[in-house]
Amino acid sequence: MDEHFILLLIIGFLAGLMDAAVGGGGLLQIPGLFNFLPSSTPVASLMGINKFASFCGTSMATGRLVRSIAVPWKMLLPAAAAAFAASYCGAKLIAYLPVQYIKPVMLVIMVAMFIYTFAKKDLGQTVRTTALSRKENYIGLGFGALIGFYDGIFGPGTGSLLAFIFVRFFAYDFLTANASAKVINLTTNLAALTFFIPNGHIVWAWALPLAAANLSGGLIGAQVALKGGSRFLRYGFMVLLVIMIGRFGWDLFNA
């Protein structure tokens, strides 16, 4: 095992920790894969390895969070099913969609999310005790399909978008929103794997060690989220948005 792969495993651990705590693990893991695996590795294989490792880390984080936090399963399960189908469709349609136009739109959305979260000091700090209405369940279904489709064709920021939606539109605290987002994010990762695995796009000699690193990080990240609570997650969410805004802005500037 060379030093580049050891560095990749460290990045995988940090990505799992970051993703479980506040989201955005792909911002670390995807560049790590492109930088530390051989340049001859097909892009589809890199993305397949990323999805497999992310799925393992998200599975660990999701299991840990939902055992400690009451999430709205009545809305989440149909929304997750819609996200699964939409994510698979998005992955199949990626060759026909103008993906290059998504980054500018996402940049605007993330700036708006940051401004809104910064301005609303109490956003995501109150624990909701009432059940979701029928209308809210349908809204959740629609958002699940929309975000699932986005994850299928592009991906970065999916968890952050979901968390913001649960806070803004369903009045959940950040801790519940983070746990709920993980449930849907887990299904979108699984949808992608139903394409990558049968088509042989995963190099298991690299994917399995990276998955173990991501899983370990996910376990610790979930503990950090539970101990830090909604106030910690609000600050972490804003820091993540700043990082993503900087990353997307840099990519657009260089393009």
Automatic annotation (TrEMBL):
Membrane-spanning ranges: 101-119, 140-167, 203-225, 232-250
Keywords carried by this UniProt record: Cell membrane, Membrane, Transmembrane, Transmembrane helix, Transport
InterPro entries xrefs: TM_pro_TauE-like, TSUP
GO cellular component: plasma membrane
Annotated compartments: Cell membrane
Statement: the UniProt record of this protein carries the keyword Membrane: yes
Protein topology in the membrane: Multi-pass membrane protein
Main localization of the protein described in the UniProt heading: membrane
Family note: Belongs to the 4-toluene sulfonate uptake permease (TSUP) (TC 2.A.102) family.
Protein name per its UniProtKB record: Probable membrane transporter protein
Biological source species: Neisseria arctica
